[in-house]
Amino acid sequence: MYATKNIEQGDKRSFYRELADQLQGLLQGERDAVANAANLSALVFELVADLNWAGFYFLRSENELVLGPFQGRVACVRIAVGKGVCGTAVAEARSVLVPDVHEFPGHIACDAASRSELVIPLVKDGGIVGVLDLDSPTPHRFDAEDQVGFEALAAIYVAASAL
């Protein structure tokens, strides 16, 4: 049985390093992409402060993301590539950090409480297979250190999973 350990929130680099260590332990020996996405979402939602949504969208065609495992309120099921923050991350093949979603043209408001967002593409063999999406009810919740930390978590997920 796996049990999470609370992590001191002070130093972000140390926080994300320990979170990555916990994620590697959690996913060790498991290749199922859905199970791993569900556990990563739960781990992040439990241990990362000030989130109201943490989860996945998977690319199911070249034009559309479809909702995957997540923690939080109900969510939009389908997002077109190029639309919203998630679709933009796929179209531009890069992480997208949005300090205030009200200032992001074309933001898709699945949860009206969300004020900031961070979306990390999931890259497998040079192609994007989906995104890891984090929302917060606090404007400017995410910064460059959060982006680096979540990019590392996404890479661990991709490496561990049969995508």
From TrEMBL:
Which Gene3D superfamilies does the UniProt entry name for this protein? 3.30.450.40
The source's superkingdom equals: Bacteria
Q: Where is the GAF domain?
A: 22-162
Check the record and name the SUPFAM superfamilies matching this protein.
Answer: GAF domain-like (SSF55781)
Give the transmembrane region(s).
none
For this record, the Gene Ontology CC terms, alphabetical, are:
cytosol
GO MF terms here are: L-methionine-(R)-S-oxide reductase activity
Q: Which SMART domains match?
A: GAF
Q: Which family does it belong to?
A: Belongs to the free Met sulfoxide reductase family.
PANTHER family membership: FREE METHIONINE-R-SULFOXIDE REDUCTASE, GAF/PUTATIVE CYTOSKELETAL PROTEIN
Please identify the protein, giving its name as recorded.
Answer: GAF domain-containing protein
Q: Which organism is it from?
A: Rhizobium leguminosarum bv. trifolii WSM597
